[in-house]
Amino acid sequence: MKKFIASVMFALSASVMVSGAALANEGGVHLESANINIHDQASLQVGAKYFANYCMGCHSLNFSRYNRVAADLGLTEEQVTKNLIFTRTDGEPTKAGELMKNGMSPKQSAEWFGAPPPDLSLVGRSRGSDWIYSYLKAFYVDKSRPMGVNNTVFENAGMPHVLWELQGLQAKECTKEGEGEHAVEHCEMKTVKAGTMSPAEYDKVARDITNFLTYVGEPAALHRKTYGVFVLLFLGLFAVLAYFLKKEYWKDVH
Ligand code: HEC
C-alpha cells in the first residue's frame, strides 16, 4: 500500500512538473525574468495606472473590484474614482465597489483583432509574470500583420503594440549561421523609431504592469505569505514545546 501511494505521489508530481515546464517553454522562446515584487506598493500603483490608461479599453479584470484594489494598493476610493475609473455603468460613472469590467463586446472585438481581448484577471497565473513582462517588450514591426506588428513571445498575436509611443518601434533582424540542417538563426531587436522613454524607463513600466497583473491574479498572496511566516514560527516554537512534553511523559519509561 505504501509503495502504491508513493508511486501515485511520484506520478502526480512528475506530471505537474512536466506541464509546468511545457507551459513555461511554450514556443521555445527565451523569457526574461520579470523580477517583480508584489509587496512594492509604489510599483503596483504605477502598474494599475498604466493598466487603466492603456489596457482596460480592451481588457477587463472581471474578478477584481476597484475598492479591493484601492485597499490593497494603499489608495483612497477617491483616488481610484478619479484616476482609475474611465467607464460608465448604465450611463453613470462606474462606482468604486463595482467589478473592473469594460464595455467592449467580445463579438465586435473578435472581428477587429481576429481574437477577442481576453479577461486578464488570471493571466498572471496562466502565463506567469516572466511571460507577460517579455511579451510587453517583444513587439516588432511586421507589415504582413493586420496591426503592423508581431510579437516574438506570442507569435501572430491580434493585439496592437499599445505602448509603442513609450517604447518606440523595434525591428527583428535575423542572421543565419551555418548551412542546411545545422543552420542556426540568431535574431536581434533593433530600435527603428525611438520612443518617449529610455529602454530602462520602459522596462520599469513593463515590470510595474506585470507586477499589477500578478497581484490581480492572486490578491490573497499579499497576506498569505505574511501569515505563512507566522505559521512557520508557531510550528517551530510548538515543536520545541512538544519535544519537552514528550521528554516529560516518557521520562519514567526509559
Ligand atoms: C486595442 C485592444 C487592446 C489593448 C488596448 C490591449 N490589448 Fe492585450 N490583447 C488584445 C487582444 C485582441 C489580445 C488577444 C490576442 C490573440 O489571442 O491573438 C490580447 C492579448 C493580451 C495578452 C495575452 C493573453 C493570453 O493569455 O493569451 C496579454 C497578457 C495582454 N493582451 C496584455 C495587455 C496589456 C498589459 C495591455 C496594456 C498595456 C493590453 N494588453 C492592451 C487587445 C488589446
From TrEMBL:
Transmembrane stretches, start-end: 227-245
PROSITE patterns per record: CYTC
Gene3D superfamilies xref list: Cytochrome c-like domain, Cytochrome c1, transmembrane anchor, C-terminal
InterPro entries assigned to the protein according to its UniProt record, in alphabetical order: Cyt_c-like_dom, Cyt_c-like_dom_sf, Cyt_c1
Keyword Glycoprotein (UniProt): no
Signal sequence coordinates: 1-24
Keywords noted in UniProt: Heme, Iron, Membrane, Metal-binding, Signal, Transmembrane, Transmembrane helix
Cytoplasm listed as a keyword: no
Domain Cytochrome c, first and last residues per copy: 42-220
Location of this chain's protein in the cell: Membrane
Main location: membrane
Cross-referenced PANTHER family: CYTOCHROME C1, CYTOCHROME C1, HEME PROTEIN, MITOCHONDRIAL
Protein name, UniProt field: Cytochrome c1
Species name: Thiothrix litoralis
